[in-house]
Amino acid sequence: MEKIIIGNFKMNTKPSEFKSYAMTLATKTKGTKNDVIVCVPYTHLETAKEILTESVVEFGAQNISEEIKGAFTGEISAEMIKDLGATYTIIGHSERRAKFRETDRLVNKKIKTALANGLKVVICVGETLQTRQNKQASAFVKKQLDDVLKGIYENELDSVVIAYEPIWAVGTGKVATPKDIQKMVELIRKEIENLYSEKAGKNINVVYGGSINLSNYKKIISIDQINGALIGGACLDVDGFSAICRENY
Length: 249
Ligand code: PGA
Description:
The protein has 249 residues and is an alpha/beta fold. The protein has helices spanning 15-28, 45-52, 78-83, 94-99, 104-116, 129-133, 137-148, 178-195, 198-203, 217-221, 238-246, and strands at residues 4-8, 35-39, 57-61, 88-91, 120-125, 160-164, 205-209, 228-231. α7 runs parallel beside α8.
């Protein structure tokens, strides 16, 4: 089955290093049926446009401003990244929520701005370890979905990927069990069904992220009802990432 494989560079690699990465990725993913996306630092977008445009690889940013344009020193708009060929942006990554105090309300605003500008969005949701230990993970993720999707229309969901990323699994080497991942994916579909329709719940793209690597990706990406993966650390190794992108799932 075709899957969506998303790489999240975070604040890693220099623009000058990205050129050879992009060239290798473009070559090694040729012919894959999977959707391959790399979300890179803004400084890499121009190179991404130059090298990846003719390839199967789509690219995007890891964040955008919720504002359209104007006096917002240091911010980058949806329109700016689109102009550089980006088709995606991640929104609401747990690192932005934790380190840059992004709330569900702000995430919701950013999603609306991205969609209004014709970008596709990877929306991150996921619970802390404490929330999971308190058996509140399901309720927490449900509420996150309700809040970040407020005012988003069903016909916009084609441009939405929900990434379930338990915070305790991001960058820690700890992976949620396939059973817990599957349960959460089912819950996400159910909540989309409640918010929109049965069809929407069935069709929404849901991926898992959190410490996916070369030794565990097959087991995770093959979980029933999962559409793919959001990969941080392991995407920096272009050979390994290309192998994950080329796999026949
Ligand atoms: P990780 O990061 O694969 O390094 O855990 C995932 C993410 O942050 O999207």
